[in-house]
């Protein structure tokens, strides 16, 4: 009975806290529109989204958790002169698409138009300045203690072989790849991509900047990474299931197997052809292990042996590195939850990407060699990692559908001799 009362108390306490937070959001909206009729309040990972009716207009407002306005979005009409400019751009690059609606997005320091366009059941959002030019929105919910300006003052950061604050090229992904979660470079002109929710591999042409082929291998799921093994693509689902397809002669059929690992959430997969083995990175801690540890397993291709722990990642070690090499960043406790893993084709170093706290950790001979924080202005949610044969680096970043940040792939040339 005592436990029953305790559970009831906790449930009521949490419900009251949630209600108090919602009351604050409602009061904020009422200060913007006194007669607002709230339709929905949705708490996202790093901000709150409120949809409401103000007069006869539907408005969507994004708020930080301390009630600062990130954006207001509402339906709008555009004057004919600007509309003609936008239509010319759409006819040139999006011929055959239909405009569904326009919205005006107002942010503290700028305003722009959002156009929703449709074709064959696929929806995509495009953004324009108020005079009709293409516009690239920036990340709207910055909360890390570092940014590009701070990172560029770091001596260690400036010695990196990759200019991680200035990509040599950024590829803006189409709407279907807003939630891009894994990448694998086939060569310097093509890259395979997957996204979280759909069992489809997208073959993206880097020269034409468009999808030129799709491989449907299963239905919906939580797909996290992709790697190339000879003429096969291996796609990782977060529960440890690997789907394999032959991309050179895809018949529509995939094989699948479940990895026998002691972890519940797996996000990183890489095939190291030089050692004929897979590296599999667990995002969360193993059962009955320290909370600071994350493990990377190795598994030989076509082997009956069990997977072995290949690398142990220690968040405490990461935090010590931060204190020693980035004291100016004033970082609090750093978490590392691997979202992707890859091996540098020339140096042999293991690169581990973490969407949590946006980090790139590099290991040499299984020892931590360097850690690079990633600027939130560039990397909303870094999820994918891949190299070309000459050592050039691709990092993909998932977008935020409501945060006006699309999926992206950043390309960085390798300066030989440095990590």
Task: Describe the 3D structure.
The protein has helices at residues 2-32, 80-93, 148-151, 155-158, 315-325; strands spanning 37-43, 48-54, 57-63, 69-75, 98-106, 111-119, 122-128, 169-172, 180-185, 190-195, 200-205, 210-216, 223-229, 232-237, 241-246, 255-258, 266-272, 277-282, 293-300, 308-314, 338-343, 350-354, 359-364, 367-373, 381-387, 393-398, 408-412. The chain is α+β, with helices and mostly antiparallel strands and 419 residues long. 15% of the residues lie in helices and 42% in strands. It contains five helices and 27 strands. The protein is globular, with a radius of gyration of 23 Å. The termini are far apart. Mean pLDDT is 87; it is low at 1-19.
Layout: helices, strands, pairs:
Layout: H1 2-32, E1 37-43, E2 48-54, E3 57-63, E4 69-75, H2 80-93, E5 98-106, E6 111-119, E7 122-128, H3 148-151, H4 155-158, E8 169-172, E9 180-185, E10 190-195, E11 200-205, E12 210-216, E13 223-229, E14 232-237, E15 241-246, E16 255-258, E17 266-272, E18 277-282, E19 293-300, E20 308-314, H5 315-325, E21 338-343, E22 350-354, E23 359-364, E24 367-373, E25 381-387, E26 393-398, E27 408-412
Antiparallel strand pairs: 1-2, 2-3, 3-4, 4-5, 5-6, 6-7, 8-27, 9-10, 10-11, 11-12, 13-14, 14-15, 15-16, 17-18, 18-19, 19-20, 21-22, 22-23, 23-24, 25-26, 26-27
């Amino acid at each position: 009975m005592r436990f029953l009362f305790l559970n009831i108390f906790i449930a009521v306490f949490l419900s009251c806290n949630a209600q108090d937070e919602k009351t604050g959001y409602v009061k904020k909206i009422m200060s913007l529109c006194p007669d607002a009729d709230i339709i929905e309040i949705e708490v996202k990972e790093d901000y709150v989204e409120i949809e409401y009716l103000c007069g006869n207009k539907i408005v969507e407002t994004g708020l930080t958790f301390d009630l600062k306005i990130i954006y207001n979005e509402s339906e709008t009409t555009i004057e004919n002169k600007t509309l003609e400019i936008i239509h010319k751009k759409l006819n040139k690059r999006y011929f055959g698409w239909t405009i569904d609606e326009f919205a005006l997005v107002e942010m503290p320091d700028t305003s722009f138009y959002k156009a929703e366009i449709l074709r064959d059941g696929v929806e995509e959002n495009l953004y324009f300045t108020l005079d009709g030019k293409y516009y690239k929105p920036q990340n709207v919910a910055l909360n890390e203690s570092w940014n590009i300006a701070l990172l560029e003052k770091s001596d260690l950061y400036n010695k990196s072989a990759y200019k991680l604050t200035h990509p040599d090229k950024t590829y803006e992904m189409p709407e279907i790849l807003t939630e891009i979660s894994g990448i694998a470079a086939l060569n310097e002109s093509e890259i395979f991509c997957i996204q979280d929710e759909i069992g489809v591999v997208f073959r993206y042409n880097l020269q034409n900047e468009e999808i030129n082929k799709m491989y449907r291998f299963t239905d919906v799921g939580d797909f996290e990474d992709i790697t190339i093994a000879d003429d096969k693509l291996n796609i990782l689902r977060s529960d440890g299931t690997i789907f394999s397809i032959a991309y050179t002669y895809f018949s529509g059929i995939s094989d699948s197997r479940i990895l026998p690992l002691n972890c519940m959430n797996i996000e990183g997969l890489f095939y190291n052809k030089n050692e004929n083995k897979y590296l599999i990175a667990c995002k969360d801690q193993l059962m009955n292990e320290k909370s600071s540890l994350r493990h990377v397993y190795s598994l030989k291709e076509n082997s009956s042996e069990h997977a072995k722990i290949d690398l142990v990642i220690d968040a405490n070690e990461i935090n010590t590195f931060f204190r020693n090499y980035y004291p100016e960043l004033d970082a609090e406790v750093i978490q590392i939850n691997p979202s992707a893993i890859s091996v540098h084709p020339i140096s042999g170093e293991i690169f581990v990407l973490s969407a949590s706290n946006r980090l790139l950790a590099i290991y040499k001979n299984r020892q931590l060699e360097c850690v690079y924080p990633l600027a939130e202005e560039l990397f909303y949610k870094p999820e994918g990692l891949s190299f070309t044969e000459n050592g050039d680096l691709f990092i993909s970043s998932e977008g935020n559908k409501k945060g006006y940040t699309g999926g992206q792939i950043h390309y960085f040339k390798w300066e030989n001799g440095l990590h």
